Each structure stands twice: as structure tokens, then as C-alpha cells.
Amino acid sequence: MQFGSTLDTIIAVVVILLVLSLIVQSIQTAFKKLIKIKSRQIEDSLLDLFQTVLNQPPGAVTGWFSRLRNSSPVFGAIFSKPKADASPVNHSAEAGNDAASQPNAASVTSEVIGRFKEIGRFAASGKPMLDSLSRDDLLKVLERIAPDQLVGDLRNRVKDVIGKYDSLCAAIGEIKSLEGSLSGDSSATLARMQQALAPLLNDLASLKNKGLSVVIGDLLRLREVKLDDVLKLLGDLQSRVEADQKTAPEESKQGLASLAEALKTVAARLTSLREDLDKAVAPIKGKVEQVGAWYDAVMQSFEERYNRGMKTAAIVIGFVVVILLNANFFQICQTLSTNPFARNKIVSYGEEIQRKKNEKRVTEAANDSAGAAKIDAVIKDLQHQYDAETAAYTSLGFDRLHLSDVSQWWRGWSTDDTLDKIKRDIIGVIGWIITGLLLSVGAPFWQDTLESLFGVKNLLRKKGGQDGSNDKMLSANAKGDGDDK
Fold first, then answer.
1. Closest by Cα among 33, 1, 31, 3 to 370
2. Distance of CA 471 to CAs 33, 459, 468, Å?
3. pLDDT 10s digits, 130-162
4. Nearest-angstrom CA–CA distance, 43 and 37
5. How many Å apart are CA 58 and CA 323, to the nearest integer?
6. 128 has which bridge partners?
7. What is the value of pTM for the model shown?
8. What's the chain's average pLDDT?
């Protein structure tokens, strides 16, 4: 019996800690949603990512408050960090290699966030909302921004590519006009060369049509053509034309000579086009690959900062809740161990919590996946959750801290024994600290603990029932033996 009473007391204490933890969780989740801590942290991590990729380290942070604001997601969200210079990249043809035409990490970050907003990642207020961000999503959005955002003066390089494309098309057109001079084998070789070049030429034609609206994705989607194979076919064609020149009638030699010169022009322009393509495409591919490579490192750092910040916020909120609700651990234990009515009531409430465990509850994980447009409804639900848990705590026989209690405590300094009052206050503060530290482990821990304790209680209850049945059977057998005698 004594053990059962002790177990019920432990269960009741865990129920109180669970209720207090749920209060802390609802406040923390509402706070996170209200000031968009996670979204702002992701935005800052994007800036860190592009500063790393573009080799633009942030300036040194001076002052303890600035360091605290940069290291803490909560302080960073409440006290907005100064925005980095996000001057737009100069895309004008006259920009050249001036500093204004160079990439800017803040500008890239702003552009990427704007693109996410265009595809629906925004809150009801219209501000960006990035509660989660995968590498694939980032790379897809990155393809929709201007190439100069990552590589300076890339538009001018693309213009050079388009110029070489036009000159190559003109040379190929001249070959086609002289195609009648070719023999059957030479015509077949020319057809194979044109077929090999067609994908690249079609992509470059599309690039030319887009003009200044070219984005990174257009460059990344340029189909790779093995230009070495094309040049080999071109060399074979030149050899065939030279051989045809030797055996052709006099009236055909002039046309074959013009064709040979045109083929040399195509070879030169094709080589020049490949060089300009490498200058334009290789740097942007390299930057995009760096974004993908650095993503894990930067986002892992973001997760670590975010989790540390949320843990600190939970501890602070926990202590505030403990003080406001006067949740003194020693007082809770004493009340539950000496008041069977309160203990049984709280144990019954704990059983009710267990029955509702599989029902829909407003939790942090559920809120993180809630739609950004429902943010107001989520916060209202969390407010109702807070009110319900606070009411449950007070209905279990405990009372919150009132201003009258503070006033009475202050007046007690003049009427009570000072030494006794100091002892009581120290014990009370220690009780608050113990409760606050116990709340810091989180509601899921106390939920699992409560489930385990109820499992032990049910096991003991079943065992006790079996023992009672065995005792009754032994008594009946003993009585039967007595009657036989």
C-alpha cells in the first residue's frame, strides 16, 4: 500500500511537470511563429552561404550586444540585425568590370528570397516565410536569377558567345550554299557534322532570343556537344574536299576551293566558340556547384544555432512560467505526498492525458508544417492551448503568483523573523530553480516518463489482482482441509 501511494505521488509530480512543460511549449511555439525566428535564421544562413561562395566574409562584429544579436536567433529576430548592402548588380553593357558589376552576396540573397516569395513562400502579411529549405529547392530557384548575380560581367561573356554563334552560322550557311560541289561521301560527312552541332546551335539560338533576360538555368541547360568529335568530322570533310579537288574537272575546282576555305573558317570559328563557351559556362557551373557543396555545412551550422537558441529560450520561458505560477518543487512534492485527494485528482488527470495522447494536439512539429497563410489561426490555437494548460494547472489545486503575494512578501520583512524569512525565500528560490531545470528537458520527455510510470502501475495492479486471487484460493483450500478433519 505504501509503495502504491509513493508511486501515485511520483506520477502526480510528473503530471504537474508535464502540464507546466506544455505551457512552456505553447508559449515558445507561439513566440517562434509570431516573430518568425526560423525563417529569419534561414535568411541569415543564406547570406552566410553566398558570402562563403562569393568569398565576401562579413565585417568584424564589435560590442557585446552585436555579438549576442548575431549568435542568438531569438535576439536576432527581436532586435533586427543591420542589413548588409544589397546594391543591385549593374547589368548595363557599359558596366564592364567595374565594382558595381561584381556579385554581391546580400543582393543574391535578396534575389533568391524574392524568387521563393514568387512561388508562394510568404506569410499572410506578405513577408517571405522560409520555415524549411532543401538543397534541391535552393538550386532550382538559383537557376531563375541573372547569371551576373554569381559571376561578375557574365552577360558580356554571353554576348561574346552569341556573336561567335552568329559568325559560325554565317560560315555554315556559306558551306550549305556550296554543298552541290561535294561528292556523295563528303555530303554524308557534312550531314553528320551538322547533326552533331544541331543541339548546341538550337540552344544558342534560344539563348540569343532571350537577350538580357538570360538566367542561370539557361546556361546550365546548354546541351553538351563533343566538339572534338565535330572537329574530327570537319577534318575528315576537309580531307575529302582536298582529295576531290585533285580529281575534279576544271570547272568544279573553283567551287571546291571556296568550300575548302569555308570549312577552314568554320573550324576556326568553332574553336573560338568553344573557348568563349567555356569562359561563360564553366564559372557559373562552378559557383552553382559550390552552393550545393557548401549548403550542408552552412545549414548544419544553422541547425546548431537554432537548436541552441530554442533551448535557451525554452529555459528562460520555463523559469518565467515557474515564477508566475509559483511552481515550487518542494511545495508541489509536499502537497502531493500529504494530500491524497489532490494526488488522486492529478493521477486521474494524468490518465486522461494518456487517453488523449493520440488525438490531434497543437505541437511544435505540427506548427512548423502549417501553411504560412494560417499563421494567425495557429497563434490563436496556441493561445487556447496556453489558457487550457494554465487552467488545468490551477484546477489541480495550485495557485499562480499574484501581485498581492509580492506585496505581502515585501511587508513580511518588517513583521517576520528575518532569518526565518531568508531561509524560506532561499528554499523557495531553490524550488523554483529545480522546477525550471526539470522543465528544460521538454514535454516529450515527461510524456514518455508518464507513460512508463502508468505501465508500471498497471503491471503492479494486475500482479496484485493475481496475488489476491491466489490468497483466496489458498484460504478456501485451507478451510476445506479443516472441514475434512
1. 33
2. 59, 18, 5
3. 878 888 888 888 888 888 888 877 878 888 888
4. 10
5. 40
6. 122
7. 0.63
8. 75
For residue 475 the three cell numbers come to: 484460504
122 by DSSP, 3-state: which? strand
Q: Among residues 123, 102, 112, 122, which one has the least CA distance to residue 47?
A: 112
Sequence spans of domains, the chain: 2-29+325-457, 36-151, 154-289
Mean pLDDT of 360-366: 44
Cell of 346: 492529478
Q: Give per-residue pLDDT as tens, 319-360.
A: 988 888 888 899 888 888 888 888 888 888 777 777 776 554
Q: How many Cα atoms within 13 Å fall on the side-chain side of residue 369?
A: 4
- Split at pLDDT 50, 70, 90, the class of 363 is very low
CA 186 to chain CA centroid, Å, is 58
d(CA 480, CA 485) in angstroms, rounded, equals: 9
Angle at 84 between CA 59 and CA 297, to 5 degrees: 70
The fold of 154-289 is Four Helix Bundle (Hemerythrin (Met), subunit A) (1.20.120)
Which amino acid is present at 143? E
Count of residues making up the chain: 485
- H-helix or E-strand spanning residue 46: helix 37-53
Place of cell 542568438: 72
Decide if 393 contacts 20 (C-beta within 8 A). yes
pLDDT reported for residue 430: 92
For residue 125, the 8-state DSSP code is T
Query: What's the count of helices (H) and strands (E) in the chain, helices before strands?
Result: 18, 0
User: Cell numbers of 377, please?
Assistant: 489561426
What letter represents residue 370's amino acid?
A
Q: Are 111 and 143 contacting, i.e. CB atoms less than 8 angstroms apart?
A: no
- In whole angstroms, give the CA distance from residue 384 to residue 226: 65
Please give the Cα distance from 39 to 129 (Å, whole number): 6
Residues 156-180 have pLDDT tens digits of 888 888 888 898 888 888 877 777 7
**N-terminal to C-terminal alpha carbon distance within the chain:** 36
Which strand (E) or helix (H) includes residue 34? helix 2-35
* CA–CA gap between residue 304 and residue 316 (Å, rounded): 18
Measure the CA–CA gap between 405 and 415, rounded to whole angstroms.
15
